[in-house]
């Protein structure tokens, strides 16, 4: 297995974005060979090579754009000083490269499971999320089970445990992670009380902007399945940055839940 493929496999296992560039066609003189591959990670590290020099620099530049814009495609490079697709060299050949970003599926972490968690898991998987269900022990102020789950910038956390103590403990931990969405089930009274606990313990109100409580869009449903739909709809809205109240989407943030 090549170094590029080894690095790509490791990135996928670690839920880390990566871009693979593969030389698929070479015409004339070129430092690149058909089948040569290079992997680019978000921090700029690479593995493998596609010939080095200006050609490799041009390929990596397009790979960075592919990683940012989330698109795959064929890219043509002319090893000449001037002209369309020229990269400023004198080799005279032409190279075609397929550049493909590999992006981890968004992660939906359901803390508590139960009658709402079951349909939410099914719906989340159907919507393309990698779903993780975490059962925590009720009544404890710690959540070691949740702490074992790696929460990143594309993790969406749903807190639906059986008691307010577990929900608050899980919320406190989730706030220490980069998770962009943390939804917590419960009444307005429960949410207000937990908000006051957090502020009293030094949490910044800005930290609470990621917390949506009571959880879910207000769709009017009352069954577990309908509540699961409301939760998933809110997660999707946040993932696509539809985070401001509009006529069609009403989002409730914890920092706005005041007495």
TrEMBL record:
Entry superkingdom: Bacteria
Residues in XdhC Rossmann domain copies: 108-235
Stored InterPro entries: MoCofactor_Util/Proc, XdhC_CoxI, XdhC_Rossmann_dom
Positions of the XdhC- CoxI domain: 12-77
One Pfam family of this chain: XdhC_CoxI
Protein name: Xanthine dehydrogenase
